[in-house]
Q: What sequence folds into this?
């Protein structure tokens, strides 16, 4: 009975057990914060690159290839599968029409927009350690030209 009482009242090693219980949770929180930070940083870099292409168009640039190049060149740490598409679209009263013709019915000049779309897979930290799927993301800017 005396041995049992000593065993129950003995508290040596309690902090080691508490650390063993808390450490995995703390490591998971740290990895989650790193993943979120990396995702947000890469997303902001992609958005900034698309804004660069939009600024080119807003300053009067008409070459869609140059707008695409501006986006790709300004995209810091772009992923290997980075893709940028730049398209010109004209609309008459909300319907897509030909840019070189006037609107039927009203005879007005169609509204012209340039659409810049960037796609890419974002890397996660500790990618080699944890086998996780890449996160695909997309950002689109629509710039009304006229």
A:
């Amino acid at each position: 009975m005396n041995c049992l009482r000593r065993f129950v009242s003995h508290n040596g090693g309690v902090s080691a057990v508490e650390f063993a219980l808390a450490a995995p949770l703390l490591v998971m929180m740290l990895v989650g914060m790193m993943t979120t930070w990396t995702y947000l940083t890469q997303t902001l870099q992609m958005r900034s690159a698309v804004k660069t292409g939009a600024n080119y168009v807003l300053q009067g640039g008409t070459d869609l290839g140059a707008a695409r190049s501006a986006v790709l060149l300004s995209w810091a740490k772009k992923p290997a599968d980075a893709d940028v598409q730049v398209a010109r679209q004209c609309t008459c009263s909300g319907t897509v029409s030909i840019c070189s013709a006037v609107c039927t019915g009203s005879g007005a000049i169609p509204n012209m927009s340039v659409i810049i779309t960037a796609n890419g897979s974002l890397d996660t930290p500790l990618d080699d350690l944890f086998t996780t799927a890449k996160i695909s993301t997309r950002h689109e800017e629509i710039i009304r030209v006229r």
Summary: The chain has one domain: 2-144. The first strand starts at residue 83 and ends at 92.
